[in-house]
Amino acid sequence: MDKVVLAFSGGLDTSVCIKLLEEKYDMEVITACVDVGQPRHEIERPARVARELGNYRHHTIDAREEFASDYIFPAIKANAVYEGYPLSTALARPLIAKKIVEVAEEEGASAIAHGCTGKGNDQFRFEAVIRSTTDLDVIAPIRDLNLTRTEEMEYARSCGIPLPSDKLYSIDENLWGRAIEGDVLEDPAVEPPEDAFEWTKPVDETPEEPETVEIQFSGGVPVAINREELKPVEIVERANEIAGTHGIGRVDIMEDRIIGMKSREVYETPGACLLIEAHRGLEQLTLTRSELRFAEIISSTYAELVYNGLWHDPLREDLDMAINHMQRRVTGTVKVKLHRGNMRITGRSSPYSLYSEEIVSFEDKTLDQREMAGMVKNYALQAAIYRKVCRKEN
Ligand code: ARG
Predict the structure, then answer these.
(1) How far is the CA of 179 from the centre of ligand 1 (A)?
(2) N or C: which end of the chain has fewer CB within 10 A?
(3) pTM score, two decimals?
(4) Coil vs helix vs strand at 107
(5) CA-CA distance, 265 to 253, in Å (whole number)?
(6) Average pLDDT of adjacent 10-residue blocks, the chain of 394 residues
(7) Where L-aspartate is bound, by residue (predicted)?
(8) Which residues line ligand 1 (CB under 6 A)?
């Protein structure tokens, strides 16, 4: 029998996939779960469910360090944000796919399966990586059979898969953020109820006193918080805690999915919001005006590539090279003041600062003001000519 490795969360969709892969595809199923910083129980659940559903071989792969260093940190350098969304789910998908491919190769499997439906973004993201790195078959049982949620439930009942107990939201959580979909959130006119949030405090429960956090960057990535040097995973965790406590990082947007469908998306990304804000602040001090303008273009292209699942497109590597070269000087310290759901940069310093207090000062004479006259005189030359032409016409 051919083997298939299934990306397995232990939830309804992927549990149904196990049984479908056996029944309709006649395959031997091996399950795998990649740890990208989801809560403990989401790592333990698939292992347990795989056992309970029939003692399937199950792999747990810890990819947290790799996620932080090779995916989150490049996204910080790029200030990667798509329509207001710091790309938590989107960034993790290519890494999850990569790890599942490794398991499939190790197991000698002939195919990889995932539980994505035909409506979302993740089908694109998984398959783009799988197909660009292997010749393995890809099977998406839920999409293949065009199953609705109700049909899935019926099928699950018929083969003894335990049904979820009145689960409200569909949540995808990793180190970089928490995405909340479904239930009342599907109506974009309805305010997300407080119970949708876990990482961020509602403003009225945040500390009365403001807190100033000091973030140190080296080469465009954060290396210490409040002077404590931390590993990438710890930096992100610490940033999530600090910003979440002050109610920072709630994102509520209308998002344009890859297939064009609009969807209302709610996120909690406190650490991402804080670290990217601080990073931008340091860039303002260390990059030239033209670099900053170009970085903005790179940033939106980068975010779109990540959102669209094109992590393996050579353009992403090209952009990383340009970004890395630019980011060499994004080294220094940023102070951010957090209070009642707001944050504001209150201090920036860098050995590569392009700011000169001397030149900007009113007392200084290094810049001879008289030399500016010629530069200023013809500055708006085209506008002056245009206005003259207009005057003649009237
Ligand atoms: N819309 C987001 C994305 O495509 C997040 C989807 C998260 N999934 C979920 N079940 N909440 O990246």
Answers:
(1) 6
(2) C
(3) 0.95
(4) helix
(5) 5
(6) 96 95 97 98 96 97 98 98 98 98 98 95 97 97 92 92 81 97 95 97 98 98 98 98 98 97 97 98 98 98 98 98 98 98 98 92 86 93 96 88
(7) 117, 121-122
(8) 89-90, 121, 170-172, 179, 181, 255, 265
